[in-house]
Amino acid sequence: MVSPSVFKSLVLAIMTFSVFGDKFTRYAGITRLMDDLNDGLRTPGAIMLGGGNPAQIPEMQAYFSELCSSMLEEGKLTEALCNYDGPQGKSTLLDALAKLLSKQLGWPITAKNITLTNGSQSAFFNLFNLFAGKNKAGQQQRVLFPLAPEYIGYADAGIDEDLFVSNKPNIELLPDGQFKYHVDFDSLKVTDDIGMICVSRPTNPTGNVLTDEEIYRLDALAKQHDIPLVIDNAYGIPFPSIIFSDATPHWNTNTILCMSLSKLGLPGSRCGIVIGNEEIIRALSNMNGIISLAPGSIGPAIALEMIERGDLLALSENVIKPFYRQRVEQTLQILRRYISPERCLIHKPEGAIFLWLWFQNMPITTEELYQRLKKRGVLMVPGHYFFPGLAQEWEHTHQCMRMNYVPEPDKIERGVQILAEELDIAYREG
Ligand SMILES: Cc1ncc(COP(=O)(O)O)c(C=O)c1O
User: Fold this and answer.
1) What CATH number should be reported for the domain holding residue 32?
2) pLDDT tens for residues 284-321?
3) Which atom of ligand 1 is nearest to the CA of 260?
4) Atom in ligand 1 nearest the alpha carbon of residue 262
């Protein structure tokens, strides 16, 4: 008798998939990360410094509970649950968001400049494959990441192979064992095969925030080559506002800004928000119709209620941002209590929910360190996943590690203790 799991793998082994099928059934970095996250969340005692789950901030949890109860009482939640929205997403939210963003940031946008998606991850899939891949003349177009490391979730999101090109950064060494990446404009080439430029700001995995100057230069380059600049604003301004440096929000009709409800504390709502010119928004809405009929309605209904109550931006600024700011400062102190700058440099934390650690002289790779930590119940993510499209080998990619600083400080301390012990062992074996 063959067990169900063996049977499943036998079936997979003899099935013939399409080229698309072969590519999208691979065990990608992002799948491993989400698997680790899922297993870890269910393993007692595991220290989850790996995936990107946002914090369960008590004040936000209480707020969401109260909000959902009163929406249920008023029939708003049931109405959202029992109806499809249009392919562009809930129109009352599109109107409210357009008003809010144009008032708050002075952007000339209306509801026609916004579409919703089932999480911003799916917006990136659609955008990458809209602007990159084989063009109508049969030439391969690519997405340029001007500064690697970049978000792991982009790496496998191209239908065609070889969709991404990325550029090594300049590294500025800072006091107190910190460093900061900058776009290396001298080596950045926007060749004819580039169909789009994409950056996350704040950046997952590093916590970097591209300066206004860097954004202006990227914007100018994109316009000069007649291609869009995509800015992934999953952690940015004006919500959820997990950003600690001065950065001016940027949008114009050549920019596609992607936002999300996830890091507000609602990752289960799977709600992404894309702001772009009307042509791009029409294209993405039509893609929504074909791929998923319509984006889910629950997240948008909650977001609309938050805007109507005047809470969306206030909670971001007064609850979410201070929570993460305090947590990151605590985590930095813990790290430095156990690990010296000689062993580990830390990227200046300017935003997002991660610290990016650089073990410059470590005798083993961070993949090996990841395996050793995992055996001891500590989950982090080895750095090499975060360099999608980097053509040349670069040892730096095997010297870095991403840790989520969201768990409670006692858990972080335990994880950091184990990390310090594993570093000692690696150096002793040296
Ligand atoms: C930079 C960045 N972009 C996009 C996403 C995708 O978020 P979601 O699909 O939950 O909106 C994430 C999730 O961690 C992220 O960190």
Assistant:
1) 3.90.1150.10
2) 999 999 999 999 999 999 999 999 999 999 999 999 99
3) 11
4) 10
